[in-house]
Write a structure and sequence with these properties.
The structure holds two protein chains of two kinds. Chain A is mainly alpha-helical. Chain A is 77% helix and 0% strand. In chain A, helix 1 crosses helix 3 (69-87), helix 1 crosses helix 5 and helix 2 crosses helix 3 (69-87). Chain A is elongated, with a radius of gyration of 19 Å. In chain B, helix 2 (23-45) runs antiparallel to helix 3 (59-82) and helix 3 crosses helix 5. The N and C termini of chain B lie far apart (51 Å). Classes of the chains: A mainly alpha, B mainly alpha. Chain A binds chain B through residues 9, 13, 16, 20, 24-26, 28-29, 32-33, 38-39, 41-43, 45-47, 49-51, 53-54, 98-101, 103, 116-118, 120-121, 124, 135-136, 139-141, 167, 170-171, and chain B through 5, 8-9, 11-22, 25-26, 28-30, 32-33, 37-38, 42, 79, 82-83, 86, 111, 115-116.
């Protein structure tokens, strides 16, 4: 009996290790774009995996074989919401040193491109929370509509609309920030 | 979907490129998950009152509690330590710094306790 329990526990731990290795980058990316700085993103990532470990057995049982990434991101999403509620704050510094912005550029043309990307990131910051989150999940994590719907607790249809509106609104924001184009 | 819209999505994908977690975070998380949650929680869950009647069984639960507590204290200290630069920057005196450090310690201890126990 005890040996069987130990085997179950070992199997569960191994499955959790796989989940952790497969999605550490996803959780960190989500956290980073959500809170806007590395320090808090580290905290949020750590909290997410600790919570996930506590509820992993149940989640695995109830997932019915579906991927657990949306569940993991939902934990991060809830923790991020608490983070803002508890501390009554929003990201104070713009996201400006993530992935592509710190990548090496070799020509001057790319500098302009880099400015465009910065404008887009600044625009993402101005979006309402649900739209911003949907974009992070789609573009930073590569989640499909169904996964995003599960992470946000929405229907697939509502998620599709949410993403579409988020992109449209972001385009508008970026256009406004660029200012009027010269004739 | 227009070509312009697709271009914008492409740019958006580049702007929101995935961010690699720092190596220290990976090491810390693996250590935390391995020792703190896995080992101690398992041992503590297996702690049955009936077993406690026999003093020979006291060693394992006490050791598990010690491991859990030790790891938890370590986690609190590590997290508090990580905020030291921010505290120094925000403090205007040594007393203020001490107050902020104690507040951070308390906050981290509560968070670790919520997570683990």
């Amino acid at each position: 009996m005890a040996a069987a329990e130990e085997t179950d526990k070992a199997r569960l731990d191994a499955a959790f290790s796989d989940l952790y290795r497969a999605h550490l980058r996803d959780v960190y990316s989500y956290s980073y774009y959500r809170v806007g700085n590395h320090h808090d993103a580290e905290d949020l990532t750590e909290q997410t995996f600790l919570q996930a470990y506590r509820h992993f057995e149940r989640a695995q049982r109830e997932s019915d074989g579906r991927p657990l990434r949306p569940w993991l991101i939902r934990i991060a999403h809830n923790l991020a919401a608490n983070y803002y509620r508890d501390r009554s704050r929003k990201p104070q510094t713009p996201i400006d040193d993530a992935g592509v912005l710190s990548a090496p550029h070799t020509t001057e043309d790319l500098v302009e491109d880099r400015d465009d990307l910065k404008r887009i990131l600044a625009g993402v910051e101005k979006l309402p929370d649900d739209r911003r989150e949907a974009l992070i999940m789609r573009f930073a994590l590569g989640m499909d509509n169904r996964e995003i719907a599960r992470a946000l607790g929405r229907t697939d249809g509502a998620t599709k609309v949410l993403l579409h509106r988020a992109i449209r609104q972001l385009e508008e924001i970026v256009k406004q920030d660029e200012g009027p184009t010269e004739p | 979907m227009s070509e312009h819209f697709a271009d914008f999505e492409l740019q958006l994908k580049r702007a929101l490129s995935p961010v690699d977690p720092p190596k220290e975070l990976e090491a810390r998380l693996e250590g935390t998950l391995g020792s703190l949650v896995g080992m101690a929680a398992e041992e503590l869950e297996a702690w049955e009152l009936s077993a406690m009647r026999d003093p020979r069984n006291w060693v394992r639960p006490v050791a598990a509690a010690a491991i859990g507590s030790g790891a938890a204290v370590g986690l609190v200290l590590v997290r508090t330590q990580r905020r030291r630069h921010k505290r120094r920057k925000e403090s205007d005196s040594a007393v203020d710094l001490l107050g902020r450090t104690l507040r951070d310690l308390g906050r981290e201890a509560r968070r670790v306790a919520d997570d683990v126990f």
